[in-house]
Amino acid sequence: MATEYSQSANQKAVRWHPPSYDIRVESVPIPKIQNPDDAIVKVTLAALCGSDLHIYRGHGGVDKVHTCGHEFIGEVVALGSSYGRDVKGRPALYSHLNIGDKVVSPFTVNCGECHVCRLGYTGRCPEGFLFGSPALDGGQAQYVRVPKAGGTLFNLSDSSTWSSALNEEEKRKALTDIADSSLLMLADILPTGVFAALQALNHPKVAPVITGKAWPICFSPDQVSGNEVSLIDEDKIITVAIVGLGPVGVCAAVSLLDALATRKAPFRIIAIDPLETRREKMKAVYNAISDSGKGNGEFIVQSIEESKEAVKKWTGGVGATAVLEVVGNTSALTLAYDLVRAFGVIVSVGVHGEPQMPFTGRQLYNKNVSLDFGRCPARAMFPLAFDLLVKRQDVFGGVGQPESLVDRVVDFSQATESYRAFDKGEIGKVIFDPWK
Amino acid sequence: MATEYSQSANQKAVRWHPPSYDIRVESVPIPKIQNPDDAIVKVTLAALCGSDLHIYRGHGGVDKVHTCGHEFIGEVVALGSSYGRDVKGRPALYSHLNIGDKVVSPFTVNCGECHVCRLGYTGRCPEGFLFGSPALDGGQAQYVRVPKAGGTLFNLSDSSTWSSALNEEEKRKALTDIADSSLLMLADILPTGVFAALQALNHPKVAPVITGKAWPICFSPDQVSGNEVSLIDEDKIITVAIVGLGPVGVCAAVSLLDALATRKAPFRIIAIDPLETRREKMKAVYNAISDSGKGNGEFIVQSIEESKEAVKKWTGGVGATAVLEVVGNTSALTLAYDLVRAFGVIVSVGVHGEPQMPFTGRQLYNKNVSLDFGRCPARAMFPLAFDLLVKRQDVFGGVGQPESLVDRVVDFSQATESYRAFDKGEIGKVIFDPWK
Questions:
Q1: What sequence ranges are listed for the domain Alcohol dehydrogenase-like C-terminal (chains A, B) (predicted)?
Q2: A347 has which bridge partners?
Q3: For A41, A162, B335, B351, which has the most beta carbons within 10 A of its beta carbon?
């Protein structure tokens, strides 16, 4: 049965005020349907994300009061006029979304039907907005308006819309057994981690290691080989460094391990962070993964200082095949450059600011570096991320355990203090329950 | 019959003198075998390349007199002790190279058998040197010493070593009908052009356009789709901009056209250069390509000013799927950024200098840009480049014609003047005949 919803009442919302460090829980109007494609979602849980801190700190060039948050899960309580009939050629949810359905949203809106979305680049839909920005109120509230909801939302109540590789038994368990605090990871951190891992594993410069065939014959069995001698086993070991072990970095590590275990590919992974608390979290997560999810390789967790020596030793001075940069600043990029091999790949999913890139053209030429930047197309990554979430409940299932990515669930009265403590690194990932 | 070769005599060589703009033709000793893997090649033809100008102008940080040139073709006149027996596990030419064989060399030495070479990354072999640098005398001489020649050289006299996709009739013609001035393009410009095109076409972010399947299902038919609607024909048209129409840029265009024609992929290509002479050359080359090599798409040649409007118009403001940057400076990179779409790819094969990259992290994040930098692994690209050379004798066959990449063949007495005029852009690609 559908939850009661009144457009005339007020609600509680976590609001950011300029210029910086000013978070207030305020009473504001409950959002209304504004366009036929809108949905109103009653928020069950909303999370605080590292990238919320850009605006919090006043670094976002933002000067408008708005409701924070781009990670939320909830229940549909109102739908625009586009829904409820069989709509040919539009995204599935315009036909399949109902009042009362449980949904999770990616951190940006995407229409799901324009040229950019058709290609799967949903994170850059021209009709997209970031939740929790001056353009679109966020999910740290009791209700949130979701524009283009039929293209944006993922319906957790209707497995026929999932496009998942899960079998029927796994789907049934997914519908009933997974906690909302776990499903909420789909909003941002899990698809972004999967995106980082996927880009590295699919990059042409990584292909020789993965396929066991030299460049350029790695691309197609029809292509011809050159003068080279055959690859040996050592050449087929992929070495990956992950720089930054916040929640996204940990998700990237779990995704990478899963993908390499599935492919039975030998590997060495080094996960790097300057903070001991984050390194300990990464170790606990790794230890909680069942053997089948760990695959056939070495996995170590180190500080920045130790990491260069470790990669050098592992690879005989050659460097890492790929580096996942999950921080978003120039010192992380510089470390990534130092660690990566010639003909290596740096995948950067961190949100970067105004500083110039810390490389000269000659540095990039001399090492034949490839760089993949940018925001995760979260909605497009949902099927892969969802399947991984279901598979890895050993690490994505809990709250407050050593291996949990979620540190605590709190009510809005603790919102201001939570922002402060999260910004200072005193606490891990926080989820708000707007109804407690 | 083998050419006469005397280690005790002197030879003519084009030599660079510090600090800059000082080219002299001098008499120097003929090189000797120094190591068992060496070969001595009697140079038939040697070309002047745009990247020779870095040292010429004094920008290379070089202060040692040396013989210039990294593009040469010739005949083997002496071999070290590693050759002439069946050597298991070493590159083919240690068994198959003979005195008198016609050979072409890539612009760098590569051993062909270390970890880096086994992966096909021959341009970054740790035992590699660039010909025509203080570390290794170049090919603008009557004789040149080729270290690690069994891994480095391509044997134009023995089609059994080619690993080519050509049929027997094509191979026979290749052995007899192709001019040395055409084969010389294998040394650098043709494999580098193929490398640029190949990197763009194989990049994961280009995959949805090429495969017609959305990200991330483009990677594997087993992967699951998301909420997206199907791609339409317009989504499957690849739009590529080529920035810089020197010889490498033209080769990149021909390679790209050939690859897209082979795949029957619809395309739009815009080839861009500020110089009208280069644009005219590009147009003449395009017109000389037979219809089967032109494929199914539009090809236009424009100035920088016109190009932004053209790409905008073609793509409804979205931008180019990929940009090939074949210049090697920051203004070319900036233009590439302006032209590329969100989730687009910039492939940079230009030789870059010390200036900082002209992008902020935020710019790259906001457009989800991918960048592939670096030197072509020329030896690894030889089979693909060679097949294209044979196929495209309509444009790669001549000298001094409107569609020819080679402007003229001159003797060493014109070396000093040729460097000057080439540096000023007064003449196109020059080949030296050391024996005229």
A1: 264-388
A2: A324, A372
A3: A41
CA B215-B221-B222 angle, 5° bins: 105
Q: Are the Cβ atoms of B227 and A382 closer than 8 angstroms? A: yes
Q: Which of B216, B262, B261, B207 is nearest to B236 (CA)?
A: B207
* Domains, chain A, with CATH or none: 10-188+398-433 (3.90.180.10), 191-373 (3.40.50.720)
For chains A and B, what is the number of CB pairs under 8 angstroms? 301
To probe the interface with A, which of B213, B227, B364 has the most A CB atoms within 10 Å? B227
Dihedrals φ, ψ of A221, to 5°? -65, -20
| Region B331-360 average pLDDT | 96
SS (H, E, C) chain A: CCCCCCCCCEEEEEEEECCCCEEEEEEEECCCCCCCCCEEEEEEEEECCCCHHHHHCCCCCCCCCEECCCEEEEEEEEECCCCCCCCCCCCCHHHHCCCCCEEECCCECCCCCCHHHHCCCHHHCCCCCECCECCECCCCECEEEECCHHHHCEECCCHHHCCCCCCHHHHHHHHHHCCHHHHHHHHCHHHHHHHHHHHHHHCCCCHHHHHCCCCCHHHCCCCCCCCCCCCCHHHHCEEEEEECCCHHHHHHHHHHHHHHHHCCCCEEEEEECCCHHHHHHHHHHHHHCCHHHHCCEEEEEECHHHHHHHHHHHHCCCCEEEEEECCCCHHHHHHHHHHEEEEEEEEECCCCCCCECCCEHHHHHHCCCEEEECCCCHHHHHHHHHHHHHHCHHHHCCECCCCCCEEEEEEHHHHHHHHHHHHCCCCCEEEEECCC
Q: What is the ipTM of this complex?
A: 0.96
Query: Which residues 108-127 in chain B show a CB within 8 A of chain A?
Result: 112-113, 115-124
Q: Shortest Cα distance from B64 to chain A (angstroms)?
A: 21
What's the token pair of residue A322?
């790929």
Q: Where are the alpha helices (DSSP H) in B91-154?
A: 93-96, 115-118, 149-152
* Residue whose pair of structure tokens reads 């013609």 in the numeric block: B173
User: Nearest CA to CA, how far is B425 from chain A (Å)?
Assistant: 24
Residue A1 pLDDT: 45
